[in-house]
Design a protein that fits this description.
Elements lengths: L1 E6 L2 E6 L7 H23 L2 E3 L18 E3 L3 H4 L9 E13 L5 E13 L3 E11 L3 E2 L5 E2 L2 E12 L5 E15 L11 E16 L4 E14 L2 E5 L7 E6 L4 E11 L2
Antiparallel strand pairs: 1-2, 3-4, 5-6, 5-16, 6-7, 7-10, 8-9, 10-11, 11-12, 12-13, 13-16, 14-15
């Protein structure tokens, strides 16, 4: 760069060369660039977002030497997670089938049940049932017709599938067994009956609110009465008897309706 000056009527021209940067100046410039980059990376790692000039209007910070910072919003702070509530379903079922060993010999019966279900994998069930065994001969002169009426409570663990729902139910049952004697001079007797029941079941949904049920139940009597012949004229005398088997089974088919 040349500069011309007039001194005492004489024109004097001088050439000025800018000083060349030294190694120290270059090192300082590189260090400053590295510090700025590291500062931005650290701020981003702490959850801050560094806004470059021209990206948007940023309010002035209290300290003018600091770059404008904006706090990143976390998803957990802004979005509210809805509370999941257990959905309760109400299902009514009607079944009928064959009783094997629940009463002496082969019998038939049915049941009516009401179920409360939570999240499609656990059910609480209560129901009433009854069965009739038909005439049974104690001897040549004595015929009884055993029948059973009772109630039950079950807890069922199920697997949720789109159309098929297998489950395992278990619980206690209690009722009254009646001999129903039809022979002259023989009194009918009503005795308590208590059992434990375990049932693998399969429910097949044919529609949104209608399904078919298939169940095979194992019945283990805890209080097992004995049907015996008693002569009213002889107190304490027991004649021929017809015991209830120690283990029975019920094979039933039915339908289920979703109420809610």
């Amino acid at each position: 760069m040349a500069i011309a000056l007039e001194i005492r009527g004489e024109l004097v021209e001088r050439t000025l060369d800018p000083p060349r940067p030294t190694c120290s100046d270059l090192h300082a410039l590189v260090g400053l660039a590295i510090a700025i980059a590291v500062d931005a990376a650290v701020l981003e790692g702490l959850g801050y977002e560094v806004i470059e000039p021209g990206e948007g209007s940023v309010p002035q910070a209290q300290d003018p030497e600091r770059p404008p910072l904006q706090r990143r919003s976390r998803r957990g702070e802004t979005s509210e997670v809805p509370v999941r509530r257990a959905s309760v379903s109400v299902v009514a079922a009607v079944r009928g089938g064959a009783w094997l060993g629940v009463l002496p010999g082969l019998a038939g019966g049915g049941s009516v049940q009401l179920e409360l279900g939570w999240r499609r994998w656990v059910d609480l069930r209560a129901g009433l049932f009854g069965g009739y065994g038909g005439p049974r001969a104690l001897d040549a002169d004595t015929v009884v017709t055993p029948s059973l009426v009772g109630g039950r409570i079950d807890v069922c663990a199920a697997l949720a599938r789109p159309r098929v729902r297998p489950r395992l139910c278990f619980g206690p049952a209690a009722g009254a067994l009646q001999s129903g004697a039809k022979s002259p001079g023989v009194q009918a007797v009503v005795a308590p009956w208590v059992a434990l029941m375990v049932a693998p079941e399969l429910r097949i949904w044919a529609a949104k609110r209608f399904a078919f049920d298939l169940a095979v139940e194992l019945v283990v009597p805890v209080v097992r009465p004995v049907l015996a012949e008693r002569d009213p004229s002889k107190q304490g005398m027991v004649g021929e008897s017809l015991p209830v088997p120690p283990v029975g089974a019920v094979v039933s088919l039915g339908v289920a309706f979703t109420i809610r």
